[in-house]
UniProtKB/TrEMBL annotation, chain A:
Residues 62-268 form the ABC transmembrane type-1 domain. One of its GO terms (cellular component) is plasma membrane. It is a multi-pass membrane protein. The chain crosses the membrane at residues 12-35, 66-87, 99-121, 141-166, 201-225, 245-267. It comes from Limibacillus halophilus. The keyword Chloroplast does not apply. Belongs to the binding-protein-dependent transport system permease family. CysTW subfamily. This is Spermidine/putrescine transport system permease protein. One of its GO terms (biological process) is transmembrane transport. The keyword Amino-acid biosynthesis does not apply.
Automatic annotation (TrEMBL), chain B:
PANTHER family: SPERMIDINE/PUTRESCINE-BINDING PERIPLASMIC PROTEIN, SPERMIDINE_PUTRESCINE-BINDING PERIPLASMIC PROTEIN. It is found in: Periplasm. GO terms for molecular function: polyamine binding. Coiled coil: none annotated. This is Spermidine/putrescine transport system substrate-binding protein. GO terms for biological process: polyamine transport. GO terms for cellular component: periplasmic space. Keywords: Membrane, Periplasm, Signal, Transmembrane, Transmembrane helix, Transport. The keyword DNA-binding does not apply. Pfam families: SBP_bac_8. The chain crosses the membrane at residues 32-53. InterPro entries: SBP, Sperm_putr-bd, TAT_signal. The lineage of its organism: Bacteria, Pseudomonadati, Pseudomonadota, Alphaproteobacteria, Rhodospirillales.
Amino acid sequence: MKGTWINRALLAPATLWLLGMLVLPLIVVIVFSFGERGAAGGYVPAFTLAQYANLPARLTAFKNTLIMAPLGTLAALVVAYPLAYYLAVRVSPRWRTLLLILVIVPFWTSILIRTYAWIFILGGRGLPLLLDMVGIADVRLMNTSFAVLVGIVYGYLPLMVFPIYVSLEKLDKRLLEASSDLGALPFATFRQVTLPLSLPGVATGCMLVFILLMGEFLIPALLGGGKVFFVGNALVDLFLQSRNWAYGSAVAATLVVIMLITVSLYMRLAMRRAGQRDDVSLF
Amino acid sequence: MSKDYKDNLPISREEFIAQLRRYQKGSITRRHFLGVTGLGMASAVMAGAVPGLRPRKAWSAGDIGDRVVLATWPNYHDPANFEKFTEMTGAYVQVNVFGSNEEMLAKLQAGGSGWDVFVPTNYTITTYVGEDLIEPLDLSKLSNYDAAAFDPRFSDAGTVNGTLYAVPKNWGTTGYVINTAHSGGMTPTTWKEFWDMTKAEFSGRTMVHDYQLTTIGNALKYFGYSFNSVDPKELADAEKLLLDVKPHLYAINSDYQPPLRNGDAWMSMCWTGDGKQLNNDMPEMRYVLGREGGEIWSDYYAVPRGAEHRAAGYALIDFLLDPAVNAKEVLAHGYPVADSRTNALLPKELLEDPILYPAQELLDALEFGAAATLTDPNRAELLARFKSA
């Protein structure tokens, strides 16, 4: 076949990158997960299933992650869709660029700083104080699942908005006209034309946010006060406090497996819903 | 170590004019000019010009690079001192803050921490030596360290097998701080009350450290066990208490000052200096040492194996050990020092402050952390289980 070596040369950097940065570390994690903890911490080579047998000790963390990740994805979608719709369909082109920039700009700021800001908003001198003024006393927001959810939606909003925006922008406006010519009310048009055509964007946005949320640890650490605990937090503790690399690797490997299963199920579902369209993809 | 007597003299006339010219020409900054001439001394935090704050030949002569990386604890330094250090040496102090010795150890074990100076607690040093993560100190680079000036109780952990690995920073206690505005003015006196109040009237308002030594240790105290216990049955009791209390906690976090200040939290496990800082700003904040006992500790400056900016690291330790600088540190962070030279510079009321210097019978009940407590895998796993419960 002609030009094979060019194809190979083009693929080489990406392949090397994937091998070095993804495949090799994953192999290390899997090997470590069958080992044991050293006396002062760290890793001692061994072949045991003890770490996997101990997984139930982190059941709560897995449960929290598997509840909060889909919930956070859904909440981000509910907030992002109307915004993306407005940006793509409703707003005049003159304002569109400015509004798009406004959505992007926060994304250029460190997630750490943006999340820290919520500590002040949700803390005793923030929203609860305002609520107190209007007569709703003793509201506690910090270190709750609600606080973590707010942080998640805020932090991941741009990732959800853009794929939806892109798919709505491609929407042929004549389809909407046709729909109303045929007597559909605005909502029916939305339900039967706009929404189905924007599903690829929704699928992509949900995928991006969901995958990142499965590994999230910063937002629950800052806004959950050690009480709303994700698998990510458990991993930080296992590597940085217990110094138990073997068990940490087993937890990490388990998380990867769970992610692979949920993501592939989701992709299959999304493909079927989108009627085998080939633009439903992460890549 | 002999010093030239000129080092302690104010700047000479010729030197002053020379520096003034340089400043006028724009080859040195205004800050640098004020620093070297001593004119900036008036704006120093402490009244009176302190000789020790003037740049010394030892530092001005050698170039120590542009930065030094310090791993330390929350609220444990006077930022003005770091600025001074940068002004004098040109090295910027990059600070990494930690919540537990475990985290420090984990970072060093993983390698590539990038630190030049770190602040280990007494009971961890033998482990660092055993794991070969720490360098013996070169005393010739620490002219401000005078072993005789230190109370051995708070300095002897720095020497392992006859080799000096660490020099004392501060000592202190681990108690708890309570906002008495919410307890009807009542100040409790025991760890038992701390845990019982958390389950009752202080529900949702208490914080514990994200740190196995103190959180488990003070839970053990509820039953009257040793703070350092690694006995499985005793640890099981402590775990049961922690799991009972968990729904009533505001947070598990070693950085507890912000929520205490903004009123979200009313009570928290607390180290001496934080207790002092909080009490200074809010007199209703009382620092309590549980009558059953708890922890007494001392922290040290040490150099990790393979420090990248070693010269800057030594310069920073030496600078912070200077009694005049150290005294400013104490005034800022409120942790006592075991250095008699520094104490001679501190105001009397600070040396008599019951937060820094608790009553003898309370001190007598306290225990130093033990190396076995740090490395015990069951304690590490217990805290992780408690957090992920």
